[in-house]
Amino acid sequence: MALNDHRYRQLEEGEFRLFLLNPSRSGTDDPLGELLTFKIDQPVRFCVLSFLWGSRRADDQANVLCGGGSGVKVPPNLVDALRTVHQRRQSQFFWADVLCINESAINERGTQAQMMAQILSKAESIEFYLNSESNSIKRLSNYYQG
After folding, report:
1. Distances from the Cα of 114 to the Cαs of 72, 107, 118, 120, in angstroms?
2. DSSP state of 12
């Protein structure tokens, strides 16, 4: 099945997106979920997913499936990170900049960059994914909690 580019809904002032990762049925499925919009002051539990970007060449990009036959092209390390956490077999919200920010919308990139400290401070934890060889996630819980 050919994927269509995901169409991001324009964010209103004070909004940000989270990716709701659906549970894996087999542990080897490609990550599938949907991008949902929240107000910055809305209570929601989520994890920031940090990863090594690796190559930025278009030919090296992979897809994260966003439902409805659409996908977002992201670095392969993010797909690997999502596959790793995907095996937890429970739905969970994640924030990863390259997935949750419409990278092709310059105004949105600037606005979301200004909100990044707020977004990070709301996160329940930050998980660091190094690479597929280590196949591990390092968690830093409540790092930004005061």
Report:
1. 23, 11, 9, 11
2. P
pTM of the model: 0.82
What the block records as the tokens of 105 is 């919308």
Domain ranges of the chain: 13-141
Three-state secondary structure of 56-96: CCHHHCEEEECCCCEEEEECHHHHHHHHHHHCCCCCEEEEC
């310059």: which residue's tokens? 106
Q: What is the pLDDT of residues 82-113, one digit of tens each?
A: 887 776 667 889 999 999 999 889 999 999 99
